[in-house]
Specification:
The chain is built from 17 helices and 19 strands. It is of the alpha/beta class.
Length: 527
């Protein structure tokens, strides 16, 4: 009898597997390095394996450590249900099971046999490195599998569990580092893919990583990390979430943030004092670490530490921007881009605290200084009527577009083909610009046909096909798709994807150049 992952026998799942046993040629169960796993056959002919452990549960003494190998199991693991989502602050949607034991992945495969060598796409979800999961129905992998690729989606540690550095954690580490645990989870999942995906009919030599927002920030970081070298062959970064307040150095301040260790030390000290966990006479380093690891997960979530990708000398030998500038990043075909109105999402969620040009100027001058004339010229409206539009542009450029261009600039200087896009469709109101995350259901083909038009369904079909073609060949172009020219430093051509298709050049070049100059100069002064 098959065993349920949570120790509950599932007779229905056993019966289902028996019904489909003679229909699908892909041998089931699949033999993994850690044991055997059985999946679920969908009506479409796709087979899905949900909740496969790719690492040991990062709990107890494994909290705030690099991921360890999964614990082997006996018998057949029934992969019919998604795992718990990683710890995060509750949100408005219906609550699902959360746990620190969350390092699981999911596989959708169309393979008829283990010898098919199909392209593999590994999805990294967004959510500000603080919330989200691979089990969201937005990220259902069936559509991709129906187009001939294997889709793998992964969970990873977030918030203080995944991105907090601390001097005591660094001191106990063999490499003298801390933080970046979520990025290490990505690397561990990619290692799992290399070792196991052939059993699902996948080609470990044709792996594309892709992610959106914070997932795009993860892709950005993996492209920069030497630890990820050889683990993927192509990369897609959607709305790359990298900006001045989510990247730092382990032990030195940069131009915008204190060191990651200093931030983590202060945040943990604040929380432990609040909880009365620190004695007046002081605690030994060993005792403080034990207290940290014994904290309930809800208390860890409340540690006031921002999430950052940390230049620690190991996962990221130096800040990614410096790695890209010197050309020492992983050289792979790249597809990257943004939505044309990313900031609209944030304006809707948090209305602006100001409405006039004077108020917008004051806010910008406070942030950048009145001497940053180029930034102020480009990101302060000329009339009160344009303040909101300008704010949308500002959020779009500073939070997503600048980093996306940084990626394509870096890759375009290698021999690898590079492709850039701008998505323009707003499914809720086609007359408006496309807000952050609007492209996700188009890419995954998870739009509800009753909520959108035939135009949207056509865009979704084209967009997913672009992504699949790129995963197969490194080139998004294919039969029946609108032509997409490659990005070069000479032309800076990008594809416009929406109700109408076309190309543009030098996307917001003056504005992004001004931001780059400000950021690079301020970081240079901090060295």
């Amino acid at each position: 009898m098959k065993i349920n992952r949570y120790g509950i026998l599932s007779l229905l799942a056993v019966m289902t597997s028996l019904v489909f046993a003679n229909v699908y040629a892909l041998e089931d169960p699949v033999q993994l390095d850690s044991g055997k796993v059985s999946g679920v056959a969908l009506n479409s002919g796709i087979k899905v394996y949900r909740g496969i452990p790719f690492a040991a549960a990062p709990v107890g003494d494994l909290r705030w450590r690099p991921p360890a190998s999964p614990i082997p199991w006996q018998g057949i693991l029934e992969a019919s249900s998604f795992s718990p989502i990683c710890m995060q602050q509750p949100r408005s949607e219906p609550q699902v099971l959360m746990s620190e034991d969350c390092l699981y992945l999911n596989v959708w495969t169309p393979a008829n046999s283990a010898q098919q060598n199909l392209p593999v796409m590994v999805w990294i979800h967004g959510g500000g490195w603080a919330f989200g999961s691979s089990s969201s129905d937005t990220y259902d992998g069936e559509g991709f599998a129906l187009k001939g690729v294997i889709l793998v989606s992964v969970n990873y540690r977030m918030g203080p569990f995944g991105f907090m550095a601390h001097s005591l954690l660094s001191a106990e580490s063999e490499r003298g580092v801390s933080g970046n645990y979520g990025l290490l989870d990505h690397i561990s999942a990619l290692q799992w893919v290399q070792e196991n995906i052939s059993g699902f009919g996948g080609d470990p030599d044709n792996v594309t990583i892709f992610g959106e927002s914070a997932g795009g920030g993860s892709v950005y970081s993996l492209i920069a990390s030497p630890l990820a070298a050889g683990l993927f062959d192509k990369a897609i970064s959607q709305s790359t979430w990298i900006h001045t307040n989510n990247t730092t150095r382990l032990r030195r301040a940069n131009g915008f943030m204190d060191s990651a260790e200093a931030i983590g030390d202060a945040a943990v000290n604040e929380k432990l004092q609040e909880l009365g966990k620190l004695s007046q006479g002081g605690n030994s380093n060993k005792n403080v670490l034990a207290i940290m690891r014994a904290l309930p997960a809800t208390d860890v979530l409340a540690i006031p530490s921002p999430v950052t990708a940390t230049a620690d000398g190991w996962v990221l030998p130096k800040p990614a921007a410096e790695i890209f500038a010197e050309g020492s990043h992983n050289h792979v075909p790249l597809l990257a881009g943004t939505n044309d109105g990313e900031g609209l999402y944030y304006i809707r969620a948090r209305p602006l605290p100001y409405s006039t040009v004077a108020e917008q100027f004051k806010a910008r001058a406070t942030e950048y200084g009145e001497s940053a004339t180029d930034v102020l010229n480009y990101y302060v409206a000329k009339t009160d009527a344009d303040v909101v539009k300008m704010e949308i542009d500002y959020i779009t450029d500073t939070t997503f577009a600048r980093a996306s261009r940084e990626l394509v600039y870096a890759m375009a200087q290698t021999v690898e083909p590079t492709w850039m896009y701008q998505f323009t469709r707003n499914p809720d109101d086609p007359s408006q610009r496309s807000p952050h995350a609007a492209e996700l259901r188009y890419v995954f083909q998870t739009l509800n046909p009753t909520d959108v038009t035939s135009v949207d369904m056509s865009i979704s079909d084209n967009m997913s096909s672009y992504w699949v073609q790129f995963a197969k060949s490194g080139n998004p172009n294919g039969t029946g798709l609108p032509d997409w020219p490659a990005y070069t430093l000479e032309t800076e051509r990008y594809q416009i994807i929406g109700a109408e298709y076309g190309q543009g050049s030098f996307l917001r070049k003056q504005e992004l150049d001004a931001l780059d100059q400000y950021i690079y100069s301020k970081n240079a002064l901090a060295k």
